[in-house]
Amino acid sequence: MTTVTYEVVEHDGGWAYKAGDVFSETFATHDEARAAADAAAENHVRAGASEHIEFQDEAGQWHEEETSGYDRPDTEVRDTLSRHHVVSRHSPRAHPVRSPAASPAGHPAALGTMLALAGLAGLLAGYALGRRA
Prior knowledge:
This protein is of the alpha+beta class. 31% of the residues lie in helices and 29% in strands. β4 and β5 form a beta hairpin. The longest helix has 25 residues, at 108-132.
């Protein structure tokens, strides 16, 4: 599994965080940069919607695939000025993701929710028909 590292560093007369060779905007204080790095790392592991993506590989071939919103990297924030030098976050892979064919909404809990709603709809329809008689 991939781990994305955000590193809090001095940059451009202030403080920033970087991921790889890409810097964030510059912050006036170290604490502001650290808070922004923590927020970015937290958002990076948060599950989202599944998406259809297209990409070109190194050989120039185009590919299409569905990506799961739960397929997120782990993240960590490195900060040499902090007592908590490295804080790691793990993506929410604890709940296995099923394909849309296995679960109507692409999520294991979705089937149970849909069945409960269908049962409730049937109960309400029966009640409404019974009141008309």
